Amino acid sequence: MYALVEDGSISKLITNPKAMVIGDVRYPVKIFQLWSKSELNAIGIYEVITDSTNKKDEKWYINTNESYAFADNQVTRSWGTATPKAHADTLWTQADSDDGDLPDDKEVGDVKVEGLKTQLIRTIKQQASGLLAPTDWYVVKASEVSDYSVPTNIATYRASVRTKSNEMETAITNASDTPALETLYTYTTDDDGVQSRPLGELPTLES
User: Fold this and answer.
1) Fewer CB atoms inside 10 A, N or C side of the chain?
2) Domain locations in the chain?
3) What span, in angstroms and rounded, lies between the C-alpha atoms of 76 and 3?
4) Quick one: the chain helix, strand, coil %, rounded to 5?
5) Which phi-psi region, left, alpha or beta, contains residue 108 (left: φ > 0; alpha: ψ -120 to 50)?
6) DSSP assignment letter at 141
């Protein structure tokens, strides 16, 4: 991406290089390929440098709109300070009720907007349910056939899924803020090249 700078200010962003008229001169698109940086700068065209220092993972944060600035002979694209998404639920309050904003099907104390914790825990539950589903038939058969019992390895696996799911949900619940949640889900690589995250993983059934 490039920017056209005129009189010290950015007048145009150039997302796709094309022929341009600058002042009274028409320049062909090939200048973007053939001209040096200094030659482009001389006519006011600068390559945009992206500064992602403040840009955060949108799973956890709300980023500001990007902005562009020209300073020190350089055009920079950057973002302002990101806002962490709410980690806890927002509830309907008595003030909402007094102001007439409380929906008819809601009561004071009900969830108004789900926080990240609620969303993440629901996902863990869904993942655990998905892992258990293929072996549900063992449990159904054991409940219907008197001389049949769930194989030990299947029973152990199903118990381990539930145990790990509960541990993961507890870790999410205990996270103090959004950065703490992000840390639970952030993978790191050890000296042996093994990737892991503090939250851990739900077990899978070995064949």
Assistant:
1) C
2) 2-83, 85-114, 115-207
3) 10
4) 35, 25, 40
5) beta
6) H
Unique residue bearing structure tokens 């851990």: 200
Tokens of 42: 């001389």
User: In this structure, how many other beta carbons lie within 10 angstroms of the beta carbon of residue 33?
Assistant: 8
HEC string of 42-83 equals HCCEEEEEEECCCCCCCCCEECCCCEEEEECCEEEEECCCCE
Give yes or no for residue 72 having a pLDDT over 90.
yes
Q: Residue 133 gets which letter from DSSP?
A: G
Among 88, 121, 92, 119, smallest CA distance to 104 is for 92
- Confidence bin at 206 (pLDDT 50/70/90): confident
C-alpha 10, offset from chain centre: 31
CA distance 199 to 169: 9
pLDDT digits (tens, 9 = 90+) for 90-109: 999 999 999 999 999 999 99
Rg of the chain on CA atoms, in Å: 28
Q: Are 175 and 138 in contact (CB under 8 A)?
A: no
